[in-house]
UniProtKB/TrEMBL annotation:
Species name: Promicromonospora soli
Gene that this sequence comes from: pcaG
Name of the protein: Protocatechuate 3,4-dioxygenase subunit alpha
Domain Intradiol ring-cleavage dioxygenases: 23-104
GO molecular function, one term: protocatechuate 3,4-dioxygenase activity
Keyword Zinc attached: no
Superkingdom of the organism of origin: Bacteria
UniProt lineage: Bacteria, Bacillati, Actinomycetota, Actinomycetes, Micrococcales
Stretches that traverse the bilayer: none
Family: Belongs to the intradiol ring-cleavage dioxygenase family.
Keywords, in A-Z order: Dioxygenase, Oxidoreductase
Database matches in InterPro entries: Intradiol_dOase_C, Intradiol_dOase_core, Intradiol_RC_Dioxygenase, Protocat_dOase_a
Amino acid sequence: MSELLPPTPGQTVGPFFGYALPYARGNELVEPGTPGAVRLHGTVYDGAGAPVPDALIEIWQTDPAGKVVARSGSLLRDGTFTGWGRAETDREGGYWFRTLNPGATEPGRAPFFVVTVFARGLQDRLFTRAYLPDATTDDVVALIPGPLENDPLLASLEPERRATLVTAREPDGSLRFDIRLQGERETVFLTYDEGPAAGKDGVGA
């Protein structure tokens, strides 16, 4: 052939998060009606602000007393709280978990969920945190004195960037945490020196 053909554009296969990874009730860390149960929910957005319908979200957390739970049973829910859950996003990019409010790992520290994001276009998973809002204010940008202000990670960020790591308490008591992969108000993502275990501070934004 004397005619030169243009190269075929590069393509990726997948992601196939809908196969094998999701499992029944993976987003339900506690049973309905459990005392202290809270709904953590939000939407995953891409760089253009469009919802991502095929992402997978994992959370890792302490129990309400601030203890890292080291127990098996996450894949087969039997009433055991393990502090780990997995949820896939729906067609509108939404996800939700039924869980418990995490406790602080140390007195005066801010409680948080460790959040892992798998999504199309990512070469590897992303890590971030979803902090509980201070009980004294809904203004996550101002962050008046309290556990949030004393957190080393949040203190290292500009106020506007800190706000992307703090959940919003909804009128019904649920926690909203939207995840923006790129663009305006992009969520702060972290790298871990010692692994993403709850309670460790070996992180970098």
